[in-house]
Write a structure and sequence with these properties.
Low-confidence stretches of chain B: 303-308
Distance between the termini of chain B: 52 Å
Largest sheet of chain A: none
Order of helices and strands of chain A: HHHHHHHHHHHHHHHH
Strand content of chain B: under 5%
Largest sheet of chain B: none
Distance between the termini of chain A: 11 Å
Shape of chain A: globular
Number of helices of chain A: 16
Helix content of chain A: over 70%
Radius of gyration of chain B: 24 Å
Largest interface: A-B, 54 and 51 residues
Oligomer: heterodimer
Number of strands of chain A: 0
């Protein structure tokens, strides 16, 4: 197993380097004068010169790449042109929300998806199976942003005044915001990595609540995230449901399941202990692949629900031509995606010994 | 003697063209059939859009009020009001006409991006498998890196380089779809290239290109069609998403995602402006997904039901 993990980690290096190269090229590939593109109408020759100097765009491309790599290792992703603040600060502000949304969507899609798949497989060729699979087929074809709008309409307007009503926008109700952990711990102006981590933790409600015990904030934030999470999770949920169904049906026909039944084992135990264990392998892979769809979905859904996350940050940075932000955000998302797939691969090997030995 | 005639008749009757045979299988498959029906209707709507749509999709109706809800005469809407099946949008245009014309754009988007991705992907995959060595390694590592990004986000990043606009958005979606076709073609070529029928062709003195195009690549056609059909569904969704975010199609184009993006803030006051374009996207994507699933099950038994 250790050998497998080491090999898998080695394979990660070229991919990560490639990802860094692609994000590096984002700024360099813009057609036309980068200064005019980024500064827009404010560009004067003097300002341009200062700008190119400041962002090191006057040097040759190899020097630039080395500097970019070096800066990455020191945790420097450059400064936002629009906000003249470090990109890392923006990441610490916006990433937690997107991660919470993705996590919640993942929990939703996995539990509901596996449940629907199992029900469908056990009730094969009945009306329940047909209905479940129609839901799954429609779910796969659902435009995430449209579903988000429909959910907002239904839960915020149609159900208004009922206990089931949910807020259609924002991250917290008015007047609520997470406690700044730096102040909570009495840290005076932390810098560097420490500042980044403290800010990241402050903005992650799940972490924040552990330290501050502010459960009101936690429930409020959860209520705001339910609709976006369902919207984001619907496509993966449908895919997981279809995968679980076919994977379980395949396993149920095997001899060892017949043997388990023949020795008089209770059906529920046959399914949960014997069949599901093997059926899980393809499901785990699908969860890994679907992380990409979850991250993309989060970007779209944040726009619908006015959530100040990574997605809305990325889109507004593109529209404002704030390239250092585009670059930094793209890099972070790709790294997260690559790491999730690494975890999936490792758990896959853990579930199926044959993969380790290949 | 009689037996022989019978046999030859049977042989003749079962020997149909492969396309017809495939279509017959597809029609027997429930989701394949549903997909064909949805897409057939969609293509008819796209072809006859000028006949079906009562207005020009970009025409501004000065006499109408903005965001008027649907008015259908046979459902009790007063006859003195102009009929608008899906209502009027925020720029006083007839939404029904816009949704109808949107079908043309959507089909073009899906087919054009996939044609581009399949063409480039096949080229890369074939070169990679055929050349082997460092070139194969290089090309496949590039594909790995492209696949290391969530596809829609990579498309967004590419649009940020190329600039916003429909053509750039399509190019971006096409580029991010290349790796899966490249990998598919590469693996097919690798499996086939050392088989006996290819060796025979080589022994007969056929040129490399002849072997590649006439002997090897036909084996990749079926999986490419299946993956391409499913890819069209994803491409339409992604293109709508980019337009929704304001990075794709520009107003006043009747693009469904753009229609949703323009009216997303009127969901509570004029939900009809959000509901109809969304249904159109969903049905189109559903059609391609169902057809793709049907084709995968009937045409290509080697492909499992894994994933999309």
């Amino acid at each position: 197993m250790t050998q497998f993990i080491t090999r898998r980690l080695m394979l990660l290096i070229p991919v990560l380097l490639g990802v860094v190269l692609v994000t590096f090229l984002i700024v360099r590939l813009i057609p036309g004068d980068p200064c005019v593109t980024m500064l827009g109408e404010r560009a004067t020759p003097a300002k341009c010169e200062a700008f190119l100097e400041r962002y090191g765009l006057n040097d040759d491309i190899f020097t630039q790449f080395w500097r970019y790599l070096g800066n990455l290792f020191t945790g420097d992703l450059g400064d936002s042109i629009r906000f003249t603040r470090p990109v890392t600060t923006l990441i610490a502000e916006r990433l937690p929300l997107t991660m919470e949304l993705t996590l919640l969507a993942m929990i939703f899609s996995t539990t509901v998806g596996v449940l629907l798949g199992v029900i469908s497989a056990l009730k094969r060729n009945t009306i329940i199976d047909t209905i479940t699979m129609i839901i799954a087929n429609i779910g796969v074809s659902m435009p995430v942003f449209w579903l988000g709008l429909l959910l907002a309409y239904f839960f915020a307007l149609t159900l208004k005044g009922t206990p089931l009503a949910l807020p259609p926008s924002g991250r917290f109700s008015a007047g609520l915001s997470p406690v700044d952990l730096a102040r909570f711990w009495g840290l005076e102006n932390p810098t560097g990595l420490k500042a980044f981590l403290v800010q990241l933790m402050s903005n992650t409600v799940l972490v924040n609540v552990i330290f501050t015990g502010d459960w009101k904030l936690f429930w409020d934030s959860l209520r705001h995230l339910i609709l976006p999470a369902v919207a984001v999770g619907t496509i993966p949920m449908s895919i997981i449901a279809r995968m679980t169904r076919s994977s379980l049906l395949e396993v149920v026909g095997l001899d060892y399941i017949r043997a388990a039944r023949a020795k008089g084992m209770v059906e529920r135990r046959v399914i949960s202990k014997h069949a599901m264990r093997n059926a899980l392998i393809p499901i785990v892979t699908i969860i890994g692949i679907e992380t990409g769809s979850l991250l993309s979905g989060a970007v779209l859904t944040e726009t619908v629900f006015n959530l100040p996350g990574f997605g809305t940050g990325l889109v507004s940075a593109i529209l404002a031509r704030d390239y250092p932000v585009v670059q930094g955000f793209t890099l972070v998302i790709a790294v997260i995606f690559v790491l999730v797939n690494l975890i999936v691969d490792i758990s896959y090997a853990y579930l199926d010994p044959r993969i380790r030995l290949e | 003697m009689e037996n022989t005639t019978e046999l030859s008749q049977i042989v003749a009757s079962t020997r149909r063209s492969p396309t017809r045979e495939a279509l017959r299988h597809l029609l027997r498959h429930s989701s394949g059939r549903a997909g064909l029906i949805i897409l057939g209707l969609l293509i008819l709507i796209a072809i006859f859009a000028p006949v079906i749509a009562p207005y020009n999709p970009t025409q501004i109706l000065r006499e109408s009020k903005r965001r008027t809800p649907p008015c259908i005469h046979i459902l009790g809407c007063p006859a003195d009001q102009p009929e608008h099946l899906f209502g009027v949008d925020g720029n006083t245009r007839d939404l029904f006409s816009r949704v109808i014309f949107g079908s043309r754009l959507s089909l073009q988007i899906g087919i054009a991006t996939m044609a581009f991705a399949i063409l480039i992907g096949t080229l890369i995959g074939a070169v990679s498998a055929y050349a082997g060595g460092w070139l194969d390694n290089l090309l496949m590592r590039i594909m790995d890196v492209l696949m290391a990004f969530p596809s829609l986000l990579l498309a967004i990043a590419i649009v940020s380089i190329l600039g916003t606009g429909l053509i750039n958005a399509l190019l971006a979606i096409g580029i991010v779809s290349i790796p899966r076709f490249a990998r598919l073609v590469r693996s097919t070529v690798l499996t086939v290239k050392d088989l006996e029928f290819v060796q025979a062709s080589r022994a007969m003195g056929a040129s490399g290109l002849h072997i590649l195009f006439k002997r090897i690549l036909p084996n990749a056609v079926t999986p490419l069609i299946v993956q391409g059909t499913l890819g069209i569904a994803t491409a339409i969704l992604d293109a709508a998403a980019l337009s929704f975010l304001g990075l794709g199609a520009e107003p006043p184009r009747p693009e469904w995602g753009l229609m949703l993006g323009e009216e997303k803030n009127s969901i509570f006051s004029a939900p009809h402006l959000v509901i109809f374009p969304g249904i159109a996207i969903m049905l189109t994507v559903l059609g391609f997904n169902l057809l793709g699933d049907g084709m995968r099950d009937t045409l290509d038994p080697r492909l499992t039901r894994a994933g999309k």
